[in-house]
Amino acid sequence: MKTILIIEDDKRLAAALAIRLKASGYEVLQAADGIEGLKLAAHHRPDLVVMDVWLPGGVGFFIAQRLQHISLAETPVIFLTASKKKDLWEIAEEVGAAGFFEKPYDSAQLLDTIRLALDRAHRPHALKDCPGHFSGKL
Question: Nearest-CA neighbor of 48 among 82, 7, 105, 11?
Fold first, then answer.
């Protein structure tokens, strides 16, 4: 069973996402801030991380970079954000995100992106060639 770490400070959104992921057959870990998320990631070594861009304890992009420093560079990261700033998509691409979704997001599309990212986790360059792995305007 694949493990997904959710790093999200919105408790309702995190709970709803956890329910969907568990119903899809994933084991789920949850953290409400960046520091707790890094600790869980280091200890449990998740197969994929879904995280908010703006978090207590750190910006999601910096958390993603820290994951690379604790030997989780190959772990796909999908970002969620309520922000509409266009430059966030570009930054997400620069840190190697497997996906980027604006809240409210389409649950089916997020689950498809998660499935694709997990299927291709051992071929990191394949994600870049996959149309539609990013949500929004690039």
Answer: 7
- For residue 13, count other CB atoms closer than 10 A to its CB: 17
Predicted model pTM: 0.87
Q: Quick one: which of 115, 116, 60, 68 has its CA closest to 89?
A: 60
- The pLDDT tens digits for 44-71 are 999 999 999 999 988 999 999 999 899 9
Closest CA to 105 of 8, 3, 2: 8
CB 10 within 8 A of CB 35: no
